[in-house]
Specification:
about 100 residues; alpha/beta; about 30% helix
C-alpha cells in the first residue's frame, strides 16, 4: 500500500473560510488529510461530514480525528448522494463543501 500524500492542504482548507461552528461536507475523504486540517479548525459546535465510497479510507487519520472537537460523521457512500446523506442527518444548511 502506498502512503497517501495530501496536496495543497493549507490552500484547500483556507479557501473554505471556516468559522469554528461551521458545518462542512468533505465529499471525497480519501486519505483524510484535509479532514484532519478541517476538524482542527472546528469547535465542539462545528460539524464535519466526510464521505467516501471506500470504507477503508476512514481508517486513515482515525486516531487523530478522535482528538478533534467537532461532531464527526464518516459516511461510506458516493458523494453524489450528499443531499440524501444530509437529509438523513437532519442537516438543512452547510457552510462549506
Amino acid at each position: 500500500m502506498t502512503k497517501h500524500i495530501t496536496v495543497l492542504e493549507d490552500e484547500a482548507v483556507s479557501i473554505l473560510n471556516l468559522k469554528s461552528n461551521s458545518v462542512v461536507v468533505d465529499a471525497t475523504y480519501g486519505g483524510g488529510g484535509h479532514a484532519l486540517k478541517i476538524c482542527q479548525q472546528l469547535s465542539e459546535k462545528g460539524i464535519y461530514i466526510g464521505i467516501d465510497i471506500d470504507e477503508q479510507a476512514f481508517e486513515n487519520r482515525k486516531t487523530e480525528l478522535k482528538l478533534t472537537k467537532p461532531t464527526k460523521h464518516l459516511i461510506n457512500d458516493n458523494f453524489s448522494n450528499f443531499e440524501k446523506i444530509l437529509s438523513s442527518l437532519n442537516i438543512k444548511k452547510v457552510d462549506a463543501i
